[in-house]
Amino acid sequence: MIAQPKRSVTRFFVPLIDVLILLFCIFLLMPFVSKPDEGKGTSEPPEAVDPTLPTNVEKLQQELAAARRRIEELKKQRANLGDRLSVRVVEVDKETGKLFAFDADGGGRQEVRDQADAERIINQQRARAGAKDVFFLILYPRELSGYPLREQIETYRRWFKDVPHGFDNPWGG
């Protein structure tokens, strides 16, 4: 016949140890889940108010309104660049390095031979642009041809020195 085993001490202590470990873990977690006691006199006094800060609310609201107006003005100034800028494209001929401008009225390609021609084109563009800022973009040839020469580039810079201008060189040199 099968007899029951005798009761041992381990059958009693193993569950007891499990319960004690669980209680110890809860004890360790208590500071993280409990709220500090409020209303006790042990808490530190609140920090003093900074004397350099203005205390007048109306003055602060006026400063805030002025700052917002400045932001709006800056946004309007930095509005769409295309609305403020008139760009005129001038091209360099790939075979000779001469400067050409296209007439906006459909007159075709006009050669810019000298300073007088450049000034005429500048004045025409300023008249067309009205209140907009004028910018001249000088395009290098899209095929590598050796033009414009360095002397030609310096000449073109002298011609357009009084107006904003830039060079678009696809070859990076």
Any overview of this molecule?
By secondary structure, the protein is an alpha/beta fold. A five-stranded mixed beta sheet has the order 3-2-1-4-5. It has helices spanning 10-33, 57-77, 81-84, 115-129, 150-159; strands at residues 85-92, 99-103, 108-112, 133-139, 165-168. It starts with 9 loop residues before the first helix and ends in a 5-residue tail after the last strand. The chain is built from five helices and five strands; from the N terminus they run H-H-H-E-E-E-H-E-H-E. The chain is elongated. The longest helix is centred in the first third of the chain and has 24 residues, at 10-33. It has a domain at 81-168. 43% of the residues lie in helices and 17% in strands. The mean pLDDT is 80.
Shape: elongated
Beta-strand content estimate = 15-25%
Tally of helical segments: 5
| Spatial strand order of the main sheet | 3-2-1-4-5
Secondary-structure element series? HHHEEEHEHE
| Percent helix | 40-55%
SSE class = alpha/beta
From the alpha carbons, calculate the radius of gyration and give it in angstroms.
Answer: 41 Å
The mean pLDDT is 80
User: Main β-sheet: number of strands, strand sense, barrel status?
Assistant: 5 strands, mixed
Please give the alpha-carbon distance between the first and last residues. 105 Å
Query: Which parts are unreliable, with pLDDT below 50 for 5 consecutive residues or more?
Result: none
Total DSSP E strands: 5
